[in-house]
Amino acid sequence: MRFTDLTTSLATAILAAFAIMGPFGSLSAGQTSESPLELVHRTVQSEVAASNGNAKVMFMDRKETPRGSQTKLMVETHEAIAGLVIANNDKPLTPEQRQAEEARLSGLARNPEALQKKQRSEKEDAERITRIMKALPDAFLYEADGTVAGSQEVGKAGDQLIRLKFHPNPKYSPPTHVEQVLTGMQGYLLIDGDQHRIAKIDGTLNKEVSFGWGIFGHLDRGGHFLVEQAQVLEGDWEITRMSLSFTGKELLFKSIHVKSDEVFSKFRPVPSSLSFSQGVDLLKKQEAELDENREGTATNNSK
Fold this sequence. Notes:
Elements: H1 5-16, H2 36-51, E1 56-65, E2 68-76, E3 81-88, E4 91-92, H3 95-109, H4 112-139, E5 140-149, E6 160-168, H5 177-180, E7 185-192, E8 197-205, E9 209-211, E10 217-219, E11 224-233, E12 236-250, E13 254-270, H6 276-302
């Protein structure tokens, strides 16, 4: 593993955690007719199938860090994901900033080499996620912990979500550095037993996790992540929130400080055949509509 993949592997593991469950624990009557092992296999199959689907969406992404916040319009295309910054610290870009941002994205759309590099990066991330997903049933032990009701932000409104506590399986031996981060996680997750989808995972590193016997670096004990997923459109589940808080070291010298809270909202479907260039045009159109709505609201408020 390249050392620069350390944080990427962590984020990949967190996103991939939407397929967790193991062959332990019991569920009370009425929660599901499946055994825990059957449920995990069906859930993993559902998540893998969804990741390989052709459905594409446009959405808004607001990410907050200690340095401030940034809001983007995002759209999935059959080539790659396009993102357009529309606000910093909840303030719209200046005309100059907006022009530069649109030029950056248009330049990427016209640069086949850069676009292919972006495609390769996204493909590698997807492959890491798939590898971790396949490891998760063996990486953790689970304990049933009741149920909670789903909502529009977490799971599906009206569905019951099965709560499971999890902690590392001491017999699990990660085959590569990508899976190494799984050896130090504990927490709980929520599974929609009817939809066979993961609605939430809340995890903490219960020990320091080293990479390459500590030579490549480590993540400190106490690191925390939270990921929520919900049905945002009919039959379409998407991540709606991701919160990360981790510290550590890279190559024993460079410090790692990851602290962010990201919310994904305003999902809408787009054609599955959408090209990257068409996606960029769609983002610009949506940005113009947001500007018009904002100006209209300001005019009405001034009356």
